[in-house]
Write a structure and sequence with these properties.
mainly alpha; rod-shaped
């Protein structure tokens, strides 16, 4: 049985997918910024060859840690976003099996064919009566 809580989450799925997309864009932007700052940090040295002070957070160890963390988070969130169904898809996932497995709905085609067969026989009989007149 579907509850109001289920309906609420089904209707929120589009917003969740949108939020995950925004989060992926932010992570991608951060990744580009991180790479850009690392490239600047490698080129920004004093004449003596020593790095300037602002470059210290972008040394190789911290850069690798931030880079790998960002890549992993990006792909995890991207995967979740891709695998999260939209509201319409979730409704179809929930309702189609219930409709397909409902015994009353499975009996409908039999009843429809019986009704059509009966009506066709009545029309044929009526057409035969009209021709004899």
């Amino acid at each position: 049985m579907i509850t109001s809580w289920d309906i609420y989450w089904i209707t929120r799925l589009d917003a969740i997918c949108f939020g995950l997309g925004i989060l992926c864009l932010l992570l991608l932007s951060f990744l580009i910024l991180l790479i850009s700052l690392r490239m600047v940090a490698l080129k920004d040295r004093d004449w003596s060859g020593h790095k300037r002070e602002w470059v210290a957070p972008f040394n190789e160890r911290y850069f690798k840690k931030l880079f790998i963390t960002n890549i992993v988070l990006f792909f995890i969130i991207l995967s979740i976003g891709v695998l999260t169904p939209s509201t319409k898809e979730a409704a179809a996932i929930y309702l189609i099996p219930k409709i397909a497995n409902n015994e009353q709905i499975q009996k409908v085609p039999d009843n429809v064919f019986k009704l059509l067969n009966t009506k066709m026989e009545q029309w044929i009989n009526d057409m035969g009566k009209e021709k004899t007149k």
